[in-house]
Prior knowledge:
The chain is mainly α and 251 residues long. The protein has helices spanning 21-24, 27-30, 34-45, 59-66, 70-82, 156-159, 194-198, 203-207, 224-250; strands spanning 55-56, 86-90, 108-111, 163-165, 168-170.
Amino acid sequence: MSRKTNNTGRTRKVRFVQLSFWLMDSLAWQSLSMNARCLYIELKRRFNGTNNGNISLSHREAARLLNLTTKPVTKAFKELEEKGFVYPAIKGSFDWKVNAKGSGRATRWLLTEHPQNFPEEALTATKDFMKWKSEKKNSRSDKIPPLVGDCTTIKPSMVGKCTTNGSQISHHNDKEPSSMVGECTTVSNIPSSPSKARASGSPKEQAKPSAVGVENTSHNKLTETGFEIFEALAERALQMADAAIAERKAA
């Protein structure tokens, strides 16, 4: 047996809840919790096209429909209001007189997605949720102050000729800076470990470089033997670089 249809070919008795893509793509909808989304569907289920502003749904009834307690339902209602999806057109109260059908106490809701029908007519919808913007919350890392320590500079004799003045670096030889390997290598603005920043130390200890890019801790320090090996390798690399520069100039 075929279903009865109207002039447009649609069935007359089948109803549905429509959620537009532009609404679901909005930032406010994507930020909604699962309970708030389900609650909005239940509110829109009661919208018949002519009762916007007179949609009745109490917290107790919503809790029964969503199989939740009243506490998460209250939170979901508040979330929908704060993000601009609904707002109460008429506040509910237990002081109201109950009619013959037992209704009359629940709050009457208005969906901002559609134009208002009650108590006054409106031609356009406000769509307040499209104006909602998320507020960035400060994370725990934002509260941690940045590390401030002494500037650690590698000795010029280790890697090449270099003059450092604060954060500015200048070359002694500007003829071929791109071809001069190891001509100027300086590491600055690297925070030292707290223990090293507190200790004044002797000139010999202050001249010792720390590991580049690694915080100086008690578990990660260069030993005296390692420092000597590092210095020897640096001098060897400098000699090879000078020899390569000399060969290039001779050619």
